[in-house]
Design a protein that fits this description.
Blueprint (H helix, E strand, L loop, with lengths): L8 H34 L4 H25 L27
Helix pairs in contact: 1-2
């Protein structure tokens, strides 16, 4: 029997569409972290306020990171794709993009 690779482009496209709001949330989190850090430091608040801000930002990023780890996976084998999203899965060879 020939080793036939299936086309999983539709399944992966659906994953990417579901992930876009999370990507936007991560971008917004990063912007708030940078701008908020400058604001807190510019207001010359006590260092404990800055630490509270950083702890809050770290707590907010945890669900974003967990969603990223669970979302971007190959539909065929379940391998985490991360930033390595090419046309084919590097583990199983399934086509995930056109």
């Amino acid at each position: 029997m020939a080793d036939e690779k299936k086309d999983f482009t539709e399944a992966f496209s659906l994953q990417m569409r579901k992930f876009r709001p999370w990507g936007a949330a991560f971008f917004a989190w990063f912007a708030v972290l940078i701008v908020g850090s400058f604001i807190v430091l510019a207001m010359e608040c006590a260092m404990e306020h800055f630490l509270y801000f950083l702890i809050a930002m770290l707590l907010l990023v945890v669900p974003l990171v967990l969603r990223t780890i669970t979302a971007l996976r190959c539909p065929a084998c379940g391998r985490f794709m991360g930033r390595d999203v090419s046309k084919f899965c590097t583990l199983c060879g399934a086509q995930i993009r056109k």
